[in-house]
Structures are given as structure tokens and as C-alpha cells.
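Practice problem: predict the structure.
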Amino acid sequence: MPAKPRHKLHPARKKFTRFASRAPFQFGLPNVSPTLGQSSDGSPIYFTRTTSLLRQQALATAPSVQIKSDAFHPRVLPRAAWSETDFAKSSVLFLIPDDALGDCVGMVLFFRAFAQKYPDAKIAVLNSASASDIFATVADIEIFQLFISSKQLARFDHVIDLSEMEGWDTITLMPVNPEESLCTAFAISPIALPARQPMAKPGMNIGILPMASSPLRTLPPALVRDIAQMLGNAGHQITLILNAYQGVMRAYKDSIAADKLENVTIIDGFRTIGELIGFMEKQDYVVLADSGPAHITKLFQTPGLGIYTSAAAKVLQGRHTNLRNWQSTYRGDFCAAPCGLAKLRATSDGQIGCMGSLKVPFEKLGNLPAASNKALAEKMVVSSTVPCVSHLQSDPDAIFQILDEDLKILATP
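Answer:
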């Protein structure tokens, strides 16, 4: 039997919806592998995050569903108890704070270390949502992508809310490294990593993934085109991966005009994150923006080049050296790279951008924009990139030199 916690449980930070259903139901997100879908189990009550798509889109209109409460907070093990608790032979449910790919990769690496220290513990995650395929790379993990039943919840010895990790409340301003932070919080040593060994050879499979969820981190199209052309001309098989889920993908693709480049195959996007993970595992080398795929390389230690702008490469890559890192060196009157911003912000009068693009100090920026603006987003990833992104094109030869050191392409006839 697992030892009883020495600290009193307290409510989780996030609110959950308690609901009942008179009819059986099943649910799964479209960009998650179908094998990770969920079904009801006859329990009297179920729980889902109040902000989840299940609550907002499905439950609200389902005639067989009765909402009991939108203010349920599971009782969780407090942050102070994480490093003091012996989880051996325990069943532990981790509440996932969000489904950002990079953050979830860091959590997966922590789970690997957790399982290494506690091989007889049973690990499960709740709220994994679109990142469920990432968590599926952990052996013997139980995944509740959107909801959990009262019967299932009662099985767990411990429930842990990972949003209590230091830095999570300011993560949109200053990114943190979840693997490092969680291993420290639980007093667990991270798993060992192999040395970085890119193997230059003819006809390599090289993936280029230039798009991030924010214009602050998406690579300039002209630079991407030049890199793809250089690698293609060297005889490698290049796959340019875009993101069909982002509204700016079409304009970005047209701007690169990669369909005219030799040895370059374009994929508009993958149907599921699982397909993206499978692609990343098979690549000999990758060139990436600061994005979820850059973090996915940590799972396989795929070698490559990560190009960073507003966020700090050293923070995001942490101890992982499989990627060579190139950091924008932009310096301006209102900011310098890396500034720490992960996403665009809005001023009080509705202007959207960053310190450098709007020419204002950080104090003039407010919260994240309340609504999306497709026209502005397209403009900022194609023709009016923010200063730290534009600055990447001021010295492309330095970036090409890194690629040559790894792949020996500049001397290719």
C-alpha cells in the first residue's frame, strides 16, 4: 500500500465540470489518434475541464447530459509535498495544464524519469487533449484526453495538478523548461541522453518545419526557401512541413513558392499529432522554428538546427544538445532578442504586436489579443515580420555555415 501523504490535500487550480449522462457516449479530438478516444463506463458522474472543447461544444447541446456543476475542484497533493512523497507502487493521476506541444514534451520526459525512479507506479494523465499522442509515447501510461469518470478517479492514490509548477502562471511571457522544473520539483534525476551525432551522408531525409503558432517564432519565408533550395541542391530529400490547422498556412506557402524547388516535397500538415511524431522519428536531420516539433526532437534526440527568435533557445532546449541552436541577435530601442514573449500582445487601444513591431515598451502591452485577426497574422508571417524574425535574414551565411558543419553541403558540386 502507498504511504499516506503527510500534507493535507487542497483544491486544484482549474475548475472542472461535473456532469451525468443518461445515454452512453464516446468522444475524441479529430487531431488525436482514434485509438486514444474515450467512452463512458456507466459511472454516475464524469468530470471534464470547464474550458475543454467537450464542455463548450458537446455537453452544452447534448439532450442526454445533465450539468451538475461548473465549479468542481479535485483535491490534489500540494506542491510542497511533491518531493517528499514516496510514489512507489502508487497510482498517480497528473492534471495537465495545457496541450501546447513543447510543454507536453517536457512533461513526457519528466514522466520517463518518474517511471525510472518509480518503476512500479501507475501513471495517468487527464486533460491531455490535442497532445494525447505525445503522452502515448510513454510506456504503460493511461490517457484521459478530455474526461474521467467518478469510478476511474476513485482508483488513484494521488492526484497532482502540474499547473502548480513554478512559472506556469507566467509561461506566455517567459517560457519555462517543464522537464527541468518538474524533475527539480519532484527531486528526480532526468533520464540519460545520448550524445549528439549527426551523420552526414548522401540522400538524407531532412525535414524543414518553419511554422510556429505565433508570428514571433515563425521563420521568414525567404530564409526558408533559401535553406530548402540549398539542401535540395545538395541532393538530399527535403520535406517541407507546414500546418494546415493555422489560418495563415496558405499565404505562407505561396510566399515560399517551394513547389518550384528541386528535391522538395511539401506537406500541408498531418491529420494527427501522432503522424507528426512518426515523421519526426524517421528524419535524419531537421531544421525548425521555435515550435512544438523542435521539442518533439527531444523524444528521439533527432539532430538538426533550431532557429530561435523571441524565446531563449537555452531555456527551451535545456540540457538537450541534439539541436544546434541559432538565436536571433536583434537589438532595438524597445527590445532585444530573446525578449521572452511567446505570443503577440495587445495594447490598450487594440494594436497587436510586440515591443519591437509596435515600438512601445513592454509596459504598454496588455494581455493576449481577445480575437484573432487573420489578415494581420498573414501580413506578419509573410511581408511584415517582427524585428527579431526579420533580423534572421541579416546574416544568412552564418546559418548556412552551421548547416555545412553538420551536413557538408557548401562543398557539394
